[in-house]
Amino acid sequence: MPYNSAAVEWSDAHFDQTYEALWWPTGIPVLRLWGANDRIVSQRAWSAAGFNWPNVMVREIPGAGHFPWIEDPAAVREAFREIALAVLAPR
Length: 91
Description:
Layout: H1 5-14, E1 30-35, E2 56-61, H2 68-71, H3 73-88
């Protein structure tokens, strides 16, 4: 996987500490999916209450890292099936 350390350093110095989401979907189905063993991107920030509404489907793929769709495509496929059903469900 390509890795640009200069971009990571710039982001850390100028962006990561000050970024604040101005909007988060609260009415449409949302899928948050990641590999449980991802050592590249931390998922800690998503635990804040503002990101965990009833419309948010959280799926951690056990045993997968940064590329869960490669490491466990069946689990990712199932998560997308679930979100598709939520999108298609009558409201």
